[in-house]
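Example S7 (structure tokens).
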């Protein structure tokens, strides 16, 4: 890891409070908090005096134990009533988040105007929603809970494919490990890209997923369909994504009528063949952006897009940034090679 000068010392540390409840998902808690703890360790190793962060768990009562969804018990540092002291208030999710105590919901509602940022991990979004913090805002949650969040309130603009979403000072994140991605994004806001890259390297994480990337890749979707009727066709699509593939070509490979193929495909993957194929192509394009110096026109041609312009439009629509912006920010492998 490349040494860097310490970040500027602070007159006070940013207090990060994670609000927890009985049955909270353990990784929702430990994943993000480990990001901030690692930043503290790197800051100190570089000669910094005041730690960038102070981290606390807030439970119903201070010093009270609570059980996580895995059965492992943890101890709260402080009580929910103290959450207003936070710089950043995060709320953990879990299987019972939608039924979390009303006292926690009330605390989040009351403390939101007092803190700089409020964020949720995974299904912790339902606690923010119950507190009224997501009304009229964009938000996300675990992909299995997307429809329930939509049903909770028609005024919440639910982002199905987002890994994490920022709307004003309210942040939400997708399933479980996406809380780590959210913490990295918050860290970058606070301490900059260089520190965030160092934290990602120490934690052996990939700093390559901007908010707006799909919660699960097409590779995982293909695995979900491996035992279905379209297993071979899904694999064939991945191997031949660079070709000009029409719905009739895909139906012919699956030995189905076009109408039946479209129906079965949507049932097994949750999306249209065209949408699925675009996701495969974008997935391949991301790898090229991160690992090569190929021009955007070349990447577009090798991944099957009609033109460089069409590629850039599809990429921006999917990820919320341009291919060039993505490469500038996330091509860490290239930077490391250049540094050597």
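Recovered sequence:
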């Amino acid at each position: 890891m490349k040494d860097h000068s310490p970040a500027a010392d602070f007159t006070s540390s940013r207090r990060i409070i994670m609000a927890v409840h009985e049955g909270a998902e353990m990784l929702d808690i430990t994943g993000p908090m480990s990001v901030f703890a690692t930043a503290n360790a790197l800051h100190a190793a570089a000669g910094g005096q005041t730690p960038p962060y102070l981290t606390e768990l807030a439970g119903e009562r201070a010093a009270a134990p609570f059980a996580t969804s895995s059965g492992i018990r943890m101890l709260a540092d402080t009580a929910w009533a103290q959450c207003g002291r936070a710089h950043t208030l995060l709320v953990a999710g879990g299987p019972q988040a939608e039924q979390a105590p009303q006292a926690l919901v009330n605390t989040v509602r009351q403390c939101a105007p007092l803190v700089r940022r409020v964020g949720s991990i995974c299904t912790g979004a339902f606690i923010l929603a119950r507190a009224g913090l997501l009304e009229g805002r964009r938000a996300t949650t675990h992909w299995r809970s997307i429809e329930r969040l939509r049903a909770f309130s028609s005024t919440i603009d639910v982002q199905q494919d987002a890994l994490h979403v920022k709307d004003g000072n309210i942040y939400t994140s997708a399933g479980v490990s996406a809380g780590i991605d959210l913490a990295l994004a918050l860290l970058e806001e606070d301490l900059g890209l260089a520190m965030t890259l160092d934290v990602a390297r120490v934690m052996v994480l990939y700093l390559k997923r901007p908010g707006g990337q799909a919660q699960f890749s097409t590779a995982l979707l293909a695995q979900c369909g491996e035992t279905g009727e379209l297993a071979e066709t899904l694999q064939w699509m991945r191997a031949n994504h660079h070709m000009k593939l029409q719905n009739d070509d895909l139906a012919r490979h699956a030995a189905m009528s076009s109408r039946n193929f479209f129906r079965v495909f949507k049932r097994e993957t949750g999306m249209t063949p065209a949408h699925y194929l675009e996701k495969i192509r974008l997935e391949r394009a991301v790898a090229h952006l991160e690992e090569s110096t190929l021009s955007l026109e070349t990447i577009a041609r090798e991944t099957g897009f009609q033109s460089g312009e069409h590629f850039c439009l599809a990429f921006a629509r999917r990820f919320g940034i341009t291919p060039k912006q993505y490469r500038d920010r996330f091509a860490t492998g290239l930077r490391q090679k250049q540094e050597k």
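Notes on this example. The first strand starts at residue 14 and ends at 19.
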